Amino acid sequence: MTKLIFDKETHRIIGGAIVGTNGGELLGEIGLAIEMVL
């Protein structure tokens, strides 16, 4: 399960969580999305 948290005004990702098998390996993808200002 994946949950992303967005800022309503700027529509930027401000956080997220991944729960499940190998979820820890995917956390880098959330970090990359935040750094890329998606």
Automatic annotation (TrEMBL):
Pyridine nucleotide-disulphide oxidoreductase dimerisation domain ranges (all copies): 1-36
Keyword Transferase included in the entry's annotation: no
Matches recorded under Pfam families: Pyr_redox_dim
Tree of life domain: Bacteria
Keyword annotations from UniProtKB, A to Z: Oxidoreductase
UniProt GO MF annotations: dihydrolipoyl dehydrogenase (NADH) activity
UniProt EC number: 1.8.1.4
The name this protein goes by in its record: Dihydrolipoyl dehydrogenase
Natural source organism: Serratia fonticola
Taxon lineage: Bacteria, Pseudomonadati, Pseudomonadota, Gammaproteobacteria, Enterobacterales
Gene: lpdA_4
